[in-house]
Automatic annotation (TrEMBL):
Transmembrane region(s): none
Protein name: 5-carboxymethyl-2-hydroxymuconate isomerase
Organism: Mariprofundus ferrinatatus
Record has Coiled coil as a keyword: no
Pfam family, one: CHMI
Top-level class of the enzyme under EC nomenclature: isomerase
Alphabetical keyword list: Isomerase
């Protein structure tokens, strides 16, 4: 936990930059102390068609899915950590947004093959 999903515009953000974003997200979250490094899972998906407030300025959207039960301050801190990690990167986007999503703790399942 958490599951970090980065959505970015196809053809605007290159593979090297996507890899850097994923590594940065992982390191920033682990360094924050909110989650252990071996708990952070990151992945990215590109999208082809989009608008941004009716225009064509590219953007990145990040979802952080975490088990329910964390308070609003923890969620806000996680959002700030993610955005702060992105700040030094020079990404060709107009805006980056973050959304913290609760996953129901009682129904969350996990299998680790042995």
């Amino acid at each position: 936990m958490p599951h970090i999903t980065v959505e970015y515009p196809e053809g605007v953000v290159d593979d090297k930059s996507v890899d850097l974003v994923l590594q940065t997200m992982h390191q920033s979250i682990a360094a924050s102390g909110l989650f252990k490094a071996d708990q952070v899972k990151t992945r990215a998906y590109s999208f082809r068609h989009f608008t941004n407030a009716g225009g064509s300025d590219p953007y990145i959207h990040i979802q952080a899915r975490i088990k329910s039960g964390r308070d609003a301050d923890n969620k806000k801190q996680l959002s700030e950590v993610i955005l702060a990690g992105l700040e030094p990167l020079t990404l060709p986007v107009a805006v980056a947004t973050v959304e913290i999503i609760d996953m129901d703790r009682d129904s969350y399942g996990k299998h680790v093959p042995t």
